Amino acid sequence: MTVDCKKKYGKQLQAIKENYRIFDIPYNAVRLIKERT
Predict the structure, then answer these.
(1) Where are the alpha helices (DSSP H) in 1-37?
(2) What is the pLDDT of residues 1-25, one digit of tens each?
């Protein structure tokens, strides 16, 4: 079950990174925004 969750999360993370690349948003900038909220 743990491995399954990691696989799902990994796929989600990959999709998120792809979306950020499309919008040309630096990953670090997004991390900073998350830390502030």
Answers:
(1) 2-23, 27-36
(2) 577 878 888 888 888 777 767 666 6
